[in-house]
Write a structure and sequence with these properties.
Elements (H helix, E strand, L loop, with lengths): L2 H6 L1 E5 L30 H5 L11 H11 L4 E7 L25 H11 L3 E7 L28 H20 L6 E5 L6 H4 L1 H11 L4 E2 L26 E4 L17 H13 L3 E6 L9 H17 L7 E2 L10 E4 L2 E6 L6 E8 L3 E6 L4 E2 L2 E4 L2 H6 L4 E7 L10 E7 L4
Parallel strand pairs: 1-2, 1-7, 2-3, 3-4, 4-5, 6-7
Antiparallel strand pairs: 8-9, 9-10, 10-16, 11-15, 12-13, 12-16, 14-15
Helix pairs in contact: 3-4, 5-7
The structure holds alpha-D-glucopyranose.
Alpha-D-glucopyranose (GLC) binds next to loops.
Length: 416
């Protein structure tokens, strides 16, 4: 696992397509939606795809998103180079169905890569294996609605061979035209088996073209890390992992979806994910012109404010204590333990089963205020043990309460 990913903790997912012009969810409206996307629209195929020929965002939009990502402390970004609707957001030589052949005429993936590097973040490409537009996939038609998992129409052998050549070719384009790429984030693989995708062969090609790249777990049978979607696992998965999460219930810009998570909720999720050693890939859906909608900006701003004060307790940390030791998420960095206080304390909080004599300092991170604290151990342990394990009670005055989540830092004396 690449070192940068292990401590990254926060990344930006960007779902953008021609359909964003009309505020439609990406791809799914053309097949009539699916139950995991309650706010998804339902449109005939041609109607959904009609904005492919008019999509003309403001040049330079990726700079806006990536500057916001950097301000929020994010370490990487993943962009939809091609979603299930088949519209390439880059200048592919293998299809005319791309942003480069429309009125915009540019290469948005290139703009994304340049903006991401300029912001100092790692570069990730989302790429859908499935393509509901490509004739050899074969394309989805209105006659196939409603979409049902497991009942997709299957290609002939010749069609599939041509389609795979297309996928391998596009992945090669993406991994040879833009310099070093840090993540390839597959999706849409569920409609075919790993054998049909020739996953292992594709993986081999990817690693030859981009040594050091990370591959997510959605190329069936391959991958370096898990991607629980819209969910934070209660216990850390066995290997590296990342939760991808929307701010409302849609991936693309969808103004009719007002089912939004609050800034508190998102910040608490950042703490929980970090405490289990994962990364949060937080989604934004720019509008058709490329700007970020105000509700998303407001949430990114809240995260930025909070991360400025408390980011030290998130970035480059490892999981902290056992869940029963503190009533909330915890992280760690060397000799420092961070307690993430996600509810307002009545008066104090407790940390259990720590070597209390080694506690050197306790402070509220956001306001840099030392906090009063008191230790308690079993009496005989205090008499006979040099380093008894005990309980620490920390007073948390109202003056140090953070508007979103209060972080308390314990600095421990290194073990003798
Ligand atoms: C799902 C959806 C897709 C979305 C992705 C992000 O697989 O099909 O629309 O891009 O999740 O994780």
């Amino acid at each position: 696992m690449s070192d940068w990913f292990a401590g990254a903790r926060l990344g930006m997912f960007i779902h953008w397509g021609h359909c964003s012009t009309r505020g439609l969810e990406l791809s799914w409206p053309l097949v009539g939606g699916n139950q995991a996307l309650p706010r998804c629209q339902d449109l005939p195929v041609a109607d959904y795809q009609s904005t492919a020929t008019t999509f003309c965002p403001q040049p330079g939009s990726p700079r806006i998103w990536l500057e916001a990502a950097k301000r929020a402390g994010m370490r990487y970004a993943v962009f939809t180079t091609r979603h299930h609707d088949g519209f390439s957001m880059f200048d592919t030589k293998l299809s005319d169905f791309s942003v480069a052949r429309g009125p915009y005429g540019g290469d948005i993936v290139r703009e994304f890569v340049e903006a991401t590097r300029a912001a100092g973040l790692k570069v990730g490409f989302y790429y859908s294996l499935s393509d509901w537009h490509h004739p050899d996939y074969p394309a989805f038609t209105d006659a196939s609605r409603p979409y049902r998992f497991g009942t997709e129409s299957k290609p002939t052998e010749e069609q599939w061979a041509r389609y795979l050549e297309y996928v391998f070719g596009q992945v090669r384009e993406l991994l040879t035209s833009y310099g070093k790429i840090d993540v390839i984030w597959f999706d849409g693989g569920w409609e075919r088996t790993g054998a049909m995708w020739r996953s292992l062969e594709l993986e081999k090609m990817i690693r030859e073209l981009q040594p050091g790249i990370l591959i997510n777990d959605r190329l069936p049978g391959c991958g370096d890390y898990d991607t629980p979607e819209q969910f934070v696992p209660a216990l850390p998965p066995a290997r590296a992992w990342e939760t991808c999460l929307t701010m409302n219930e849609s991936w693309g810009y969808n103004p009719s979806d007002t089912d939004e998570k609050s800034s508190h909720d998102l910040i608490h999720t950042i703490c929980e994910v970090a405490s289990r050693g994962g990364n949060l890939l937080l989604n934004v859906g720019p509008t058709g012109d490329g700007s970020l909608p105000p509700n998303q900006v407001e949430r990114l701003d809240a995260i930025t404010r909070w991360m400025r004060r408390n980011g030290d307790a998130i970035l480059d940390t490892t999981p902290g204590l056992e869940p029963w030791q503190f009533d909330g998420p915890t992280t760690r960095k060397g000799d420092r333990i961070f307690l993430h206080v996600l509810a307002r304390p009545y008066e104090s909080v407790k940390v259990r089963n720590i070597p209390v004599r080694r506690v050197k300092a306790v402070r509220a991170v956001g306001t840099d205020t030392p906090l009063e604290h008191r230790a308690r151990c079993a009496v005989l342990d205090t008499l006979f043990k040099a380093n008894p394990m005990g309980e620490l009670t920390i007073r948390v005055p109202a003056s140090v309460i953070d508007e979103f989540a209060t972080v308390i830092e314990l600095t421990m004396e290194p073990e003798a």
